[in-house]
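Quick one: structure for this chain?
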Amino acid sequence: MTPLHEALAAVHARCKPLPAEEVPLAEAQGRVLAVGVSARRDQPATDISMMDGYALRAADAGSPLRVAGEIAAGDAPWERELARGEAARIFTGAPLPPGADCVVMQEHTAREGATVRVAETPRAGQHIRRRGEELEAGAEAVAAGTIPGSAELALAAACGATTLRVFRRPRVAILTTGSELVPQGTEPPPGKLIETNSIALGALCRDAGAVVQFLGIAPDDVGEIASRLLPAEADILVTTGGASVGDHDHAQAALERLSGALIFHTVAIRPGKPVLFGTASRGRLVFGLPGNPAAATLGFELFVRLAIRLLAGDPNPARPQARARLRGNLSRIKGLTYFPRGRVVAEGSTLFFSPGAQQSSMQIASWAGVNAVAVVPPGEGRLDDGEEIAVLLVGPLT
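Got it. Here's what it folds into:
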């Protein structure tokens, strides 16, 4: 068996970011920036008012001031300087007139025809947003490696960008294997099962940022499995079922027919020990996951998701880990890292992990409602209630 850390390192070593492509801003959400965005001009481009009121010199506030004009957001900046004893009616977002050094809110003024009286003692600089306060021309606004959300996209737009250069989405082709499986929507005859892994894995792939292609169901036949995988235009090929070493397990033999190279087969984990990783023709990566649903999902979480995020250019591709207090008991397994599924909740500043009642690798529903898996190192004995353990966060905390 391959130790877990060696298996993860092998995936890391063979997953480099895919080529970058230019996409419109609206299509860049959730993608990883290959090239950062810099400000093309100062932002804001000039000193602007943060309030509706009057722009003036703070030193002139003690006497009535002549209102020299009005400036609204979108107006061109004044070319003439505000003279002493003058004020300008100004609105939020409007450019500050030259000579003014403060803005007084309209609530603190009294207008009398062509003059205005200030009812406070203002300070220089108040209620003014300075030129370049947010960004100076040439400054990096959004760094390469960022996964832009709404704020980053808006900032890029403010910098003048209409497109962003992002890493291409990984393409994943999924093939389910097993002569016992029938498609969804089919009434299974005796001895057959409805195929479900493609639904779960497809959803997980899309959540990880991949474009998904389904290759259907292949019977337990090496030639059929290889013929389905061979023409697939994908960066990652994923099979489920047939990953072990029984008479009807053909994932490794099929890999050989793809001009492939086996990197590891079986990893020291539970569930999901019989996981396979290799390379195939045209630079494709191949993952053979177990057929048992819970084991297939864990194999995806540990290895396939990592590969997708690395190919997508994510500088932080792994799921976040945390420390939590155990509620209940867990047994260690000699020679295997154990990943029991469960839920983490936050109570104050402390996280608590409760293992699910069902941990069978065959149970589809054992991942339902799960937001974390515990990481139990190999060993003997058990972990008791209240012990601190490591958890891998796979969903939002509640």
